[in-house]
Amino acid sequence: MSGSCFVVYPGLVMRKLVQFLVVVLALFSAPLAARAKVRITVDLSSQQMDVLSDSGSSYSWPISSARSGYVTPRGVYSAVSLQTMHRSKKYHNSPMPHSIFFHGGYAIHGTYETASLGRPASHGCVRISPANAAMLFSLVRAEGATIEIVGSPPPSHPFASESRHRRHYALAHHKHYARSGHGHRATALSYAPERRGDFPTRVFGYVLH
Length: 209
Description:
Structural class: alpha+beta
CATH class: Mainly Beta
Shape: elongated
Strand content: 25-35%
Oligomer: single chain
CATH superfamily: L,D-transpeptidase catalytic domain-like
Strand order of the largest sheet: 3-2-1-9-4
Radius of gyration: 25 Å
Helix content: 25-40%
Number of strands: 11
CATH topology: L,D-transpeptidase catalytic domain-like
Order of helices and strands: HEEEEEEEEHEHEE
Number of domains: 1
Largest sheet: 5 strands, mixed
CATH architecture: Beta Barrel
Distance between the termini: 89 Å
Number of helices: 3
């Protein structure tokens, strides 16, 4: 008999096929595990944030969302930018420590107005305490995040003098950071600045910067 004879053993083929499938599944499951994200749920109705990390750790914290006259957007978002210290140009360079931006200029960030947590008090961002903001920032930086904002905020009252409140807020935060030694770096991903009587930077209602 000339030539060679190749015998196929069904059992051997099946074992090889199973081994191949195991390798393929391992390759696909590894990236999926790496993409696991922190789950952040913000309930505007209860002014509460629930956090569930990939490690299984969970937290519930009070928040402040937008007060009367402002809006905190509802929906499902991803963390698109993280900044250890951001400053709002629109609101007198007010510091926003451990900012997690999720929709344009909207962010989750720390606030030193902790007495207001648990009720609407912000200009639209989601405020949490400085310690909680630092912890959340660290989790999101390591795992990424899915942010879901639901519910409707309870009624709130606007401040009697918005401009006076802004000046007080900015001054309080400026003094805090002057004592703590933090810098005053502003970044590009901030609110549009709002200046008054600042000619010629203000022309026909637009700010040039």
